[in-house]
Amino acid sequence: MKPKVSFICQNCGFQTPKWMGRCPSCGEWNTLIEEIVEEIPSPGLTLSSGAPLLYEDIKEIAKQRIKTNIHDFNQVLGGGVVQGSLILIGGEPGIGKSTLMLQVSRDLASQKKRVLYVSGEESLEQIKLRGERLGLAKEKIYFLAETILERILQAAEQLSPEVLIIDSVQTVYSSQLTSSPGTISQVREVTNRVFRLAKAREMATFLIGHITKEGSLAGPKSLEHIVDVVLSFEGERDHSYRVLRALKNRFGPVSELAIFEMSEEGLTSVANPSAFFLRERPTKEPGSVVVCTMKGTRPFLAEIQALVSSSLFMGNPRRMTVGLDRFRAAMLMAIAEKKLGYSLAGEDIYLNVAGGLEIEEPAADVGIILALISSVKNRALPPEVAVFGEIGLSGEIRSVTQPFLRAKEAASMGFRTVVLPQGNKDRVEKDGLKGVEVVGVANVQQLIGLFF
Q1: How many domains is the chain partitioned into structurally?
Q2: Element holding 349 (H helix, E strand)
Q3: pLDDT in tens, 226-272
């Protein structure tokens, strides 16, 4: 069949026979690239056994998880690596994706698992230089420097590894397509064929991918639908910590989070994230409040900072948020004006979660509004106080999930007072929390009255 020329959007995968300046599907400009679209015969791999099975006859895959020696990594995946799963891990260049996967390879190889690490970005000599400081010399890991998909699949079929790692999916290309590596067609073809191999051989497979400057995974959106798990590896290059979070997980929760610290020896898990992120907290500064937040099943403490100052732009004050939902922050500012009587119309307001963390849950509302009022009044909160709770539009403070775990985490970090919703107070006291005073509040008026 004669190949045809199409223009394919590199952002969403939309195809059109003619070039357009703006993609009609996603609305992005100058993303349509000319590619030759060819029909590729199916390799014939199937995922089905061919016969229907009763539910009780289907083998249990939860017992077939492969656990690494990195507990937090296992937790993000839902308890370990599921055999036959396809896992995509994305992050900015230089953030530490390859380092993390080399350490995972080392841990799995130490358990006598056969691991094949395919690098399309570094030579074997470069990998060995990095491996020396990561302690790879003691383990038997197979390495392959290759970018042609067919050769990678052939090596995987011959070696039959239990774990396959490809670094990265944007550098691998199929010789059956004439388009360049990293294009929509190539990324889709590579992912589909690796997916079929992983399922047919029950081979746990990791694909390392890059992200765009907007922060989304490079490649077609369908890439995220094909894989079983999507992990995001984030962090600031100026900071030593890295955050691994699950954006999609067919085998576990998607809200789990792991925190690592980068050092010369590689990545190490941060056992106590609360202490890590509060270690530089000023204790007597206005606008600083500690909140008890949840990331999946894990509680930890974070510092919310607020700075309120007179605006130089009359009628158009600035509202800046870092690590918080700006729409929710705007709602809390309106509540402070309407229910508490504070005039913020002529003030520039800056809100920040210290350490570069992101807090998405509404349980941080109490911390945000306390930080705002603390900065307005220029009065610091007592340093031994931690708070949590959701605020409604009427000024009521609503109950949140896992109040005991939140309060327990605060107590373990030496906080002597926990301010929480009145509806959560009885539950926390009933569970027998010791060493901390539990204070319940029903509305924002009671909340502000405690401190100001």
Answers
A1: 3
A2: strand 347-353
A3: 999 999 998 876 678 899 989 999 998 887 889 999 988 889 998 88
